[in-house]
Amino acid sequence: MRWASALVVSGILVxxxxxxxxxxxxxxAVGGALGAATGAIWANENGIxxxxxxxxxxxxxxxxxxxxxxxxxxxxxxxxxxxxxxxRLAALEGQLAGKDVTMSxxxxxxxxxxxxxEAKQLPVQVEAKNGQLRFTILNEVLFDAGKSELKPEGLxxxxxVLEVIQKEFPDRQIMIEGHTDSDPIKQSNWASNWExxxxxxxxxxxxxxxxxxxxxxxxxxxxxxxxxxxxxxDTKESKRxxxxxxxxxxxxxxxxxxxxx
Length: 261
What we know:
Layout: H1 2-17, H2 23-46, H3 51-120, E1 125-129, E2 132-138, H4 139-142, H5 155-168, E3 174-179, H6 193-211, E4 219-225, H7 236-242, E5 244-249
Parallel strand pairs: 3-4
Antiparallel strand pairs: 1-2, 2-5, 3-5
Helix pairs in contact: 1-2, 2-3, 3-5
């Protein structure tokens, strides 16, 4: 009986060694090993066949049965995998369809905004990025060097951007971004470019609230200093492009609900 027990153990070892095989192959191997052990034990106890003959019969029968069971399990697993893949594919298709709709709507919004501003020939750049519409005005249009007060001649550009926003996106949140170049503060009294960009973005916010009656709940300000450049800061022209104010129309999902008490 010891050698029969050894065959049973060998069946377990076969299962471990065939872990990288298909379920059908594993079933045939394990079934064959266990069948051989069972056949050998049966032949030995009944004396009808030699132990090695019983093991051979058991090996064939066990291998066949194991293969059939493994094949059935393979089919079930494959069906489950196919259903899982179909579910994932449907989810991805739904996400892509939603993004297509979003991108299409954003492109239409961008085209409408560009058309209105180009008609007035104002120095405003419009782009769509990450679901946002971004209206960029260079600081030289709005501010004197080192200053945060809005220049009267720059208000026309702000007014035109606001006109587009109020017409096309009356309920959307608006963020004002302040940006500078990388030159350190030398002649003015600002502690750093962060303070300067913050003061400039807040000047735009106050103008929109105090002079243009935009509700404060729609507005926010951000100061980036020199840390969000659009050019390399290695030439006068690139630094000029980095000195800018950006009026950002946030996507609809960013709208905030403010309860008034």
